[in-house]
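To the wet lab folks,

You asked to see what we're planning to order before we commit. Fair enough. Below is the target structure as C-alpha coordinates, and below that is the sequence we designed to fit it. If anything looks off to you, flag it before the synthesis order goes out.
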Protein backbone atom coordinates (compact mmCIF):
# COMPACT_ATOMS: atom_id res chain seq x y z
CA UNK A 1 0.00 0.00 0.00
CA UNK A 2 1.18 3.49 -0.86
CA UNK A 3 0.15 6.68 0.87
CA UNK A 4 0.29 10.00 -0.93
CA UNK A 5 -0.11 13.27 0.97
CA UNK A 6 -0.39 16.57 -0.88
CA UNK A 7 0.39 19.94 0.64
CA UNK A 8 0.99 23.52 -0.41
CA UNK A 9 -2.43 24.51 -1.65
CA UNK A 10 -4.11 27.75 -0.67
CA UNK A 11 -5.60 31.03 -1.82
CA UNK A 12 -3.59 33.20 -4.19
CA UNK A 13 -4.30 36.17 -6.43
CA UNK A 14 -4.20 35.82 -10.19
CA UNK A 15 -0.63 36.03 -11.41
CA UNK A 16 0.73 34.54 -8.22
CA UNK A 17 2.54 31.29 -7.53
CA UNK A 18 2.16 28.20 -5.42
CA UNK A 19 4.29 25.10 -4.98
CA UNK A 20 2.52 21.85 -4.33
CA UNK A 21 4.27 18.88 -2.76
CA UNK A 22 3.26 15.24 -2.62
CA UNK A 23 5.02 13.02 -0.12
CA UNK A 24 4.85 9.28 -0.75
CA UNK A 25 5.28 6.48 1.75
CA UNK A 26 4.59 2.80 2.21
CA UNK A 27 5.83 -0.32 3.95
CA UNK A 28 7.44 -1.97 0.94
CA UNK A 29 7.72 0.98 -1.29
CA UNK A 30 10.36 2.28 -3.68
CA UNK A 31 9.47 5.74 -4.92
CA UNK A 32 11.57 5.42 -8.06
CA UNK A 33 9.39 2.48 -9.17
CA UNK A 34 6.51 4.92 -9.71
CA UNK A 35 5.77 7.40 -12.41
CA UNK A 36 3.99 10.32 -10.76
CA UNK A 37 1.23 12.57 -11.97
CA UNK A 38 -0.78 15.60 -10.99
CA UNK A 39 -4.47 15.93 -11.79
CA UNK A 40 -7.05 18.52 -10.82
CA UNK A 41 -10.79 18.68 -10.42
CA UNK A 42 -12.93 21.79 -10.35
CA UNK A 43 -16.51 21.65 -9.01
CA UNK A 44 -18.88 19.98 -11.45
CA UNK A 45 -16.12 18.81 -13.77
CA UNK A 46 -14.18 15.63 -14.46
CA UNK A 47 -10.76 15.14 -12.91
CA UNK A 48 -8.30 16.25 -15.55
CA UNK A 49 -4.66 15.62 -16.26
CA UNK A 50 -2.18 18.36 -15.38
CA UNK A 51 1.31 16.87 -15.59
CA UNK A 52 3.30 13.66 -15.26
CA UNK A 53 6.93 12.75 -14.69
CA UNK A 54 8.69 9.47 -15.38
CA UNK A 55 10.37 7.34 -12.77
CA UNK A 56 13.78 8.79 -13.55
CA UNK A 57 12.47 12.32 -13.96
CA UNK A 58 13.81 12.56 -17.49
CA UNK A 59 10.45 12.48 -19.29
CA UNK A 60 7.75 15.03 -18.51
CA UNK A 61 4.39 15.84 -20.06
CA UNK A 62 2.06 18.79 -19.43
CA UNK A 63 -1.50 19.59 -20.32
CA UNK A 64 -1.66 22.37 -22.90
CA UNK A 65 -3.52 24.56 -20.41
CA UNK A 66 -0.57 24.68 -18.02
CA UNK A 67 2.39 24.39 -20.36
CA UNK A 68 4.89 27.18 -19.79
CA UNK A 69 3.42 28.05 -16.39
CA UNK A 70 3.67 24.85 -14.33
CA UNK A 71 6.78 22.76 -13.66
CA UNK A 72 6.77 19.24 -12.29
CA UNK A 73 9.80 17.75 -10.58
CA UNK A 74 10.66 14.92 -8.25
CA UNK A 75 13.22 14.12 -5.60
CA UNK A 76 13.59 10.36 -5.36
CA UNK A 77 15.76 10.68 -2.26
CA UNK A 78 12.90 12.47 -0.47
CA UNK A 79 10.06 10.40 -1.97
CA UNK A 80 8.42 13.63 -3.07
CA UNK A 81 7.01 15.08 -6.27
CA UNK A 82 6.45 18.80 -6.72
CA UNK A 83 4.32 21.03 -8.89
CA UNK A 84 5.52 24.62 -9.18
CA UNK A 85 2.63 26.75 -10.42
CA UNK A 86 3.36 30.24 -11.73
CA UNK A 87 1.21 32.87 -13.42
CA UNK A 88 -1.86 31.34 -11.87
CA UNK A 89 -5.27 32.08 -13.37
CA UNK A 90 -8.75 31.85 -11.85
CA UNK A 91 -9.42 28.86 -14.12
CA UNK A 92 -6.65 26.97 -12.30
CA UNK A 93 -8.90 26.85 -9.24
CA UNK A 94 -9.45 23.19 -8.35
CA UNK A 95 -8.55 20.42 -5.97
CA UNK A 96 -5.15 19.11 -7.02
CA UNK A 97 -4.37 15.43 -6.65
CA UNK A 98 -1.12 13.55 -7.01
CA UNK A 99 -1.11 9.99 -8.27
CA UNK A 100 1.36 7.12 -8.55
CA UNK A 101 1.66 4.62 -11.40
CA UNK A 102 3.66 1.51 -10.49
CA UNK A 103 6.30 0.72 -13.11
CA UNK A 104 4.44 2.94 -15.53
CA UNK A 105 5.65 5.33 -18.14
CA UNK A 106 4.36 8.85 -18.49
CA UNK A 107 0.64 8.68 -19.04
CA UNK A 108 -2.17 11.22 -19.07
CA UNK A 109 -4.80 8.53 -18.50
CA UNK A 110 -6.37 8.70 -15.06
CA UNK A 111 -7.19 4.98 -14.86
CA UNK A 112 -3.54 4.04 -15.35
CA UNK A 113 -2.64 5.36 -11.90
CA UNK A 114 -2.69 2.96 -8.98
CA UNK A 115 -2.69 5.27 -5.97
CA UNK A 116 -4.14 8.70 -5.25
CA UNK A 117 -3.77 11.31 -2.59
CA UNK A 118 -6.63 13.11 -0.87
CA UNK A 119 -6.05 16.36 -2.71
CA UNK A 120 -5.20 19.93 -1.83
CA UNK A 121 -7.35 22.94 -2.66
CA UNK A 122 -5.97 25.69 -4.88
CA UNK A 123 -8.06 28.83 -5.21
CA UNK A 124 -7.02 31.67 -7.51
CA UNK A 125 -8.85 34.95 -7.09
CA UNK A 126 -9.25 37.47 -9.89
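Sequence we intend to order:
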Amino acid sequence: QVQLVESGGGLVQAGGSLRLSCAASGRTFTFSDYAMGWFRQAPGTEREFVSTISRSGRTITYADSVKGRFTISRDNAKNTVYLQMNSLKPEDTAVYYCAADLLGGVTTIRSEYDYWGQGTQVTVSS
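Structural context that might help your review: DSSP finds no helices and eleven strands in the chain. The CA atoms of residues 11 and 123 lie 5 Å apart.

Thanks,
Computational group
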